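tool_log.txt
---
The assistant was asked to compare two proteins side by side. It first ran the structure predictor on the initial sequence, then on the second. Raw inputs and outputs are pasted verbatim so the downstream comparison step can read them without reformatting.
(1)
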Amino acid sequence: MGENEKTFNKIVEWLNEANVSTDPKAKVESIIKVQEIIINQHPHLLDAFLDDVLAFQSDRNMEVRRTVVGFIEESCKKDPAILPRVMDSLDLLLRDSAPQVQKRVVQAASQVYRGALMYIARTQPVPPQMDKAWGSLCTMKSEIVKLIDNDNDGIRTQSVKFLEGVVLLQTYPEADSMVRENDFNLEDIPLTLKIVRRRRLEEEASMIFNLLVKFHGEAHVSSVNLMTCMGSLTLIARMRPQFMGKVVTCLENLNKNLPPTLSKSQVNSVRKHLKLQLSNLLKQPSAVDYHGEITKLLSDLGCSSQEINKIMPKVDDKSRRSHKRTSAESASSLHKRPRLEALYRPEHVPEPKKSQPSKVSVDIPAEMTEKFISDRLNPETVCNIVLSALPQVPSQMPSQFAANYAPVQEPGSQTHIQYLAKLLMSHFSGGSVPRAMPRKSGKMVLTELPEDDVEDESISPPPPPAAPAAPAAVAAPEVVMPPPPPPVEELMDQDGDDLEGPVFNQRDTAGHLVVQREKLKELTPMTPLTRPLKQKARALKLAEITRPLSQESKTKMCTSAVKRILSADKTAVCGGVSSVRNKIIVTLACTYNSDIRSEILKFVLEDLQSRLDLELAISWLYEEYSLMQSFTRKPIFVAEEGSVGKRYVKLFCTLANHLADKPEREVLLKRLYLEAPSITEEATDILKELSCDETRCTVGLQLLQSLVIRRPPKQLTYLNALLEHTAHDSVEVRSNAMKCVLSLYDGRSDLRSIIEEYAIMYLGFLQLPVPPDVLFGRERGRPLKVDNWAEGPTKACLYLYLELLPHEHKLIHELTRVYVQTVPEVKRIILRLLDSPVRGMGMDSPDLLKLVEECPKGAETLVTRVIHILTDKTPPSTELVKRVRELYQSRVSDVRFLIPVLNGLTKREVIDSLPRLIKLNPIVVKEVFNRLLGTHSESLSHNSPLTPAELLVALHVLDTKKVELKMVIKATTLCFAEKQAYTQEVLAMVMQQLMEMNPLPTLLMRTVIQSLAAYPNLSGFVMNILQRLILKQVWTQRKVWEGFIKCCQRTKPQSFQVLLQLPAPQLQEVLETCPELRQPLLQHVQSFTENQRMHVPQSLMDVLTGTRHVVQDDYDSQVAEPMSPDGLTIDVREDNFPENSGTSEPLPPGMD
């Protein structure tokens, strides 16, 4: 029980997977698994899960529905009792829109029908629901019989196989029938069964067999259907010998008249298949009666006598069958019906005299007629027949005769003579049946005259005039010969009624019989063939007494007639026969010479607008197409003027060019292409040329898009033509083509892979050393070919790919594969064109994150560019920052990878990266600061790990052992250039923080000077900074002290108050460094009041007046001066500091 529950749960799981899955393959696999478990392992579960599997019959996918049909077939084979439950599903699937599903249903119906019939025959009583299901199954059988005329070749093939099975099921076998295992036939059906009657089934089988014979002889049957039907008929003949004669006759007719629509290779295949089937028939014991016909057919098909003897059945079997046939013929001859001549003789026609019973004719069997003809076939007779038929032989060999003609094997042999006799017998019997006449010698002679016209026995035929009288002693019985057959012309002209006796024609009158007697009197007496024949009176022939018209007159009269028909359009409309007139015009245009075609074409082109509305041009196209495909037979009197296919192409291209030249007829051009039966390569080229015209490309490209959807057989041709224009050099052509392709890409899932492959193919061209020829040409907008990867060819390979990238993100990996193998010029162009596609993909794209995470070797620049584009106007996402950080720490040590995601890093990470960042190109460093300061985008939302003040402070405290001071100076200069970020308040905050550091940063005073130059209003704050620097003994740091002096020099006279606060030695050093400050500073002090001057130390006044030299050693600080790098120079411009200066920078200390 546990195992059953496990199986039950497993089936439920598979069915649930099939229900929720969107992959058709997964659904099919699940249903097949369920079928395998239920049908082969646990049949008791079929009842529980049958409805669940049948629910998939409405699935959108064709393969799923076909799998359901297979499940129904196997279920009915396993348990026919479920037929009532599945009958509705089978009926619904038979009407499915997909031909593949219909074909599968017909294939399954053979097994279902057989199983149902066997179940009904063996089940008593028949359940009521099975009775109803049998009725539905018979209705389905009728529907399948109609499918033998379906347009789909495969459906017709399966229908033939189904009908073959029905015939075998509904007929009786014979003793020598071929027997198959588990065979079922009418003998297995009980006579007492009411639901199924033997007689009705047998009649239906006979009708279906006749339908198969008719289908086998159709002129337009395909080679596959023909060979399938041939095999079915052969199998029926082998298993049901009662049909053997009809099948052999059917195969004989096929050998004589093969369908004219078959190609040469198909004819060879059909003949080979026919040879195989005839060989199979010859092996059957039931075919002994037809060995002559079969061996003759095999000889015609190229079999040698040895091959035929090899497959011939044993002699004993053949003798036994011949004996049986002879007995049957003798028995049947006893039961021939009496002649009903007296019943059908008209009242006014006298009956034959009863005293002459010897004159009553007797029907001759076909074998006697054939023997009579074969015995009299000699070279002279054959030559006469051939000579009489020569005037009707065409000058050129008909194509059908040439296709079916096979060389005569063993000409002149007895077999060949018997074959000719049989043909002549069948030809003569079509008009009049030979009769038997008594002769004086008691033997029978043949004549084609009715019995009523035979003369009395006492009246002998008159002797020929030149023959001498024979002596009575040696007189022998007269040898009476039949008259020679009439010439072939007369046989073809006669309708077969004039020589038919009263037994066969009840409508004959006495006058008709008198005419026959007159004909009899004109006939030559029956004599041996050596006797000269009386020449018949020559018939009047109109062609011999009339003068033929000249070719010029014929052409002129024909052209005039056509012109009258063309000008009668209004008359035809008034008479209501417009459609008839159009049919006449179309027929004339298709079947007559080029002059007529030219006149009609001129008429159509004169006013193409109305003609297309009236369907004349379209009808002409369809008629030409029918001739081209041999759907319509061309009249034999029409001379060939080039290929029919060329005429269709010429007509289509003429109409298309005429419409394409006039923009106002674009609607008609669309109708022409959409309604035409076939669009040739030349017509497609016209459409391509129209699509290359910048002014009219929209029409051509939209037409190509419509043809892709509406012409599935040539879908790839039109799609390729459309894709070619996506690489056109013209922006107008390319943009319109791109719209059409993207519309197909988004709307047709079956075309997505094809479009993607085309885009990847063009992308792959970039790996070649030179651009391929496919990118150049007049139709591509690049008439001149170049040998290097210039911008034009490179962009042509990228247009379609970059347009598809936002729609299918997985394509980005193809770009990295190609990028690493391209030349530098191509790489630069790729990087420039990535902006829009990458933005369309978005930062959250899994494929983009995967690209960043993997970063193929050689594609680092590409990945960096992608990250830059993603973070240019929006802050980086957490996932992106995480992957870039991992990439930087594990594989790629290039600090440039961090630039796009700087705003996503922590404050510590950014500060640690600054030494490496400021070593980069100044342009890159500027971008780094723009991102940190938020000036790179117009977005209002900016979240930087560093504030502008923190960034500038961090630059001042960088370790000079890791980065050169020059680099730091350049970096701070870039910061000062961003006035939007570094306002007056920010700089004041920076100077405040720098001043509070110990030791003081080397670039402190440079920053102070630059801040003051940028914002002169900071002069008061700067003076305060300078005073506080005096308290921190700024002179102890040499570089800072030099900057202090430079600042005081530039800020005079505001700095005079600060200078007076310096100790005397430092003031003396300042004045020695800047002697130009001594006099202004002295004047400043002298301008003090007496009270103010008292606060100035005397030492300072001595320094100012120069009366005392202060020794520096007395004021040296006990603290060691911080060491600065030797040879340090700070690039500050040597300018006088103006009060309103905006961008001036100070020179480094010691260079003024």
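(2)
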Amino acid sequence: MHKYGTTETLEKLDKEGKDAFRLTCTACHGGNPVPRKISDDQAEIERVKRASHVQPRFPEEWKRDGKYTGANPERTNTLLARESWEFVRFINPGDIRVAAKTCGSSGCHEAQTKNVARSMMAHGAMLWGAAFYNNGNFPLKDARFGESYNESGAPQTLIQTPAPTAEQRRTQGLLTFLEPLPRWEISQPGNVLRVFERGGKRRLEVGIPDKDEDPGKPDKGLSPRGFGTAQRTDPVFLGIQKTRLLDPTLNFLGTNDHPGDFRSSGCTACHVIYANDRDKSHSESYQVAGNMGFSKTADTNIPKNESGHPIKHQFTSKIPTSQCMVCHMHPGTNMVATYLGMTWWDNESDGDKMYPKAKHESSQDEEREKLNRNPEAASLRGLWSQLEFLQKTGTPEFNSQLRNVQFGDNHGHGWMFRKVFKRDRKGNLLDAEDKIVAPNDPEKFDKAVHLKDIHLEKGMHCVDCHFRQDSHGDGNLYNEPRAAIEITCVDCHGSIRGPATLFTSGPGAAAVTGQAATTRKNRKEPLIGRDLTRISFHDDAGETVRAFQRLSRDTKKKDEDGKEIQLKAGDIIQNSLVVTGRWWRVIQTADTVTPGSRDYSEKSRYAKTIRKDNSTWGSAPAADKELAHSDDNMTCVACHSSWMTSCFGCHLSMQANRKMPNRHNEGGDSRNFTTYNFQVLRDDIFMLGRDGTVTGNRIAPVRSSSAVLVSSQNQNREWIYSQQQTISAEGFAGQTFNTHVPHTVRAKETKQCSDCHVSEKNDNNAWLAQLLLQGTNFVNFMGRYVYVASDDALEAVVATEHDEPQAVFGSTLQKIAYPDNYETFEKGGRELREVYEHKGNPRVLQVQLRGEYAYVAAGEGGLRVYDVAQIDQKGFSERISTAPVSKYGQKFYVKTKYATAVTSPTTLGVDPARWRMKTDGTMIDPATAAALTGEARHQLVNEEQPIHPLYAYLYVADKYEGLILVNAATLLDGDPLNNYLKRALDPARYPNGAFNPGGALNGANNITIAGTHAYVTTDHGLVIVSIDDPLNPKIVGEIGEPALKHPHAIAVQFRYGFIVDEEGLKVIDLTTPNQPHVLEGAVVSLGDAHDVYVARTYAYVANGKEGIAIIDVEQPEKPRLDQMFNAGGKLNDTHQVKIAMTNASLFAYVADGRNGMHILQLTSPETMPEYAGFSPRPQPVLIGTFKTKGEALAISKPLDRDRAVDESGNQVSVFGRRGARPFNFDEMMRMLRTNDGSGDLFRVTDSPLTPPVSSKP
């Protein structure tokens, strides 16, 4: 290839290239350098350009804004893969397809180009693998599919050579190979919802009726044959092909269509900087270029007002965080967003500035264009789908208008990112001194602490921590990102036992061999990891600078502002890779625990040296195992994180009548598209669990990261399933949790002792329930339909909009986002009018929805199960059914004498009957898998814990028979032929298959399951039944009169039970469930208490004629009445309350007896600035009412979204990383009791109460 360029072009680029290697245009880009123009005629110029430039195969697709240009076009998707190798090289010599011949030739960057092509930033397997396993679509946690293309642009398989052993796959996260993503047309459904079950007569045709079809009962129409045929395929495989999530990977150009989306592909994606963010701390000197992908080049041929150009035609290693953010912002809870102190906007806060005042009806073409840009369906209704509006959000001028949030300046995917500020648990903004910032203070966002990571605050960018290997990969195929990361906190900061070694020691740190190993051994240096002191770079003057230096003597050094800083021998300083002259001293952990050190902190010393006796502290013991918080058991970020994100709910809604492009492999357009709709986004919580195997199974932060719900609309615009859960491959609920590194380190705003242990004031019971992933009933999902038990009928009341955002009728969000609908609703007297019902058989006393079934306590009718799979299907005349098939195919009832209550042990879809896969590919049944212990558990390829068998059953409280168990696991297995419900207990041991020893459960009126205990309220007291062995239940505790008088219901939160009886609300200590006792004085007297529901620090008591009693239980042993609410007398027969969250607001759903069902809005960004706190004080407002046919007695509990484990340590929700899990019961006890969980219950203060020990024992 010629290496000549025109003098004219070289002169224009000289200014930009003088500090680097001098390469001609064709040396990198190819093309023909020979043609010269013979005149300035435009036709002659075009002739020379065509002769010099490599021409594309698809010229029309390379236009931007309708014209040919040098800018990156918008959303090219797979266009690069379809183009010729020569053209790809011409437009981007750093593209992965060509980089081996361009960047990697002549010994320049050969290793890097090979490694990048196999890195996770190129193949993206970690997201696909998690999506497939967590939602039940592929049986392995280890990723199998990844994106890669050969030089001709064809999808290819990546192979690890030599193949890793099973142990390397388990402990190092290595993969054997990665295959291209299969076409969705050949997939088979992993979650067999009713519509996917066997059956069906024909393939559904659009608008063509079938004369043989039963009226009001349309055929499924997916396929008359088996799985994988016609449309009986997997929607997750389809969504990943077409919905923009992680896309595009480094294989393709960025989408180049929003502020924050501008980049190239391959090497150039990182090393050529585009204008994406005007925030200086994110972009440094590049901020002047704006956020619209405009150029600042000296080349006069490049327009300066056209998006899609790099700032300069120049490679650099000075990569700002704003460039990383282009990719590392999906989901909006990703680590770069959090590093910047930002997360997704909730689609509600300050919504009056984000939605149009008047409704705009988009055309189908408009909707297609908008969804191509941003897959979030709420954007169709909002102003942020307009580029000109999006560009101004994040500016100081726009943010000054906002009351509750402040937006960032980058908008990748077209999304809005809001800044996270320090708050107390009540929701008040706090300044640096923990003083409350008044909500009406015009400078409140300047005074409140913006929780960006302390490293960013000090001037560090991503590349200042994640060096060459972390960024480029090492050539291995990895299953998860952290398996490939070589840097850890201690590599720079050291530990309490000594200063940093400045050698990397993370999971991706490689062992040295040969002479290098001998040299290190002689120097007493670590035998694994990179020597950080050998990393060097060039500053703006071209001088070589070491990234790290350990000072050998006292000295002074000027910082970037010219201020002279005194440094001491032994100090470690780090120089910025991005800003010449910027440096910082790296604080050593050992200094923070050493009295007299300039960095000494008593709190640091206390936290890092406290022993397991909760008393001794001050110095490091000889053995780490004596420490309460040893490095080998805890990650640094388990304490040193100021906040973390949680995405409680992601509604993936597929529509058949949308023709959209495939974004992978060969591309092309086809029908079906899935929108991506996040639901509840919070930054107010903190959760912990056990990290994955690769990262040492240490204690680590846990976030809810993809709590998926799915819907699908067919070609006749019928919703064939709606808002359904998924179940993971081995049976855990698809409401996914993940251990992670939050990247939210702060100096002062970090975790305190009382954030993880029972506080001295005992005011953190709800907080600890959240921390331990037991759930708090606060962020739960009610959905579009509210299921009401109305005595003689089951009624499903429509309570929300169908479109996104799915605002609750009458809510402040509906008023903002759907002003016309809100006005109509208000004029209609705020009455809910759409309902679907089924007459009781004979009664409906209580109801619990789970998945596509509603479980009903039917009084003398016993247990009834209603099929509600078609509840949103307009083609069905009867949307609630007791017999979807004939009696020969199922039996959806169990007769009992008088069923008063029914409960499932969880609202989550948990299938304990799933078989488990071993490393040799064989399958074993759940009981065999559960019996494996110790090293034998390594035979399980996915390293999952067993699912407790108690989750296979429904639990029915019968007034005369006691407790009845019914096996309902068959309702989750996708087989419609085995749904024959019956009593599970052996009638030979338990009369009539019911548990009621000596009549102890006579008069049973309600039941609650918490862990391995069933709490049954009866006419004479509370009976606690152990269901640890569900087919052999036993009574382990009882409380009767005078402590309890005819109790009606109990709610359990962590260590306490909240029970209502004829005297009011009482509190029971359940720290040891086998030894329950009512707490003396912990009583709130109420006149007509029927039921209780606890959501975080408030108990909502259905108090009959007095309405709702809202009781503050922040200190469970000192409950107090906060307020009584009856909506001006409209609530006067209240039987039950349930709490759920929609977007940023909290709602109560009330069964109010003869008055029907009411909806209350408890919190709102529009009315209370504290709405974003962990538990703000509710301000109830009645917003909607539905008059039921009979008395409204009960409301179905909404879906638990923050519950990954039960009170006994049994996991219920899937964790995305292999080996990661919630704490088991013994580990929970270690956080509550001394002596490794076997001693006394202890309480903590955030400052030490005992003097430190000054020497090691």
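---
observation on (2): The longest helix spans residues 7-17. The chain is about 15% helix and 20% strand.
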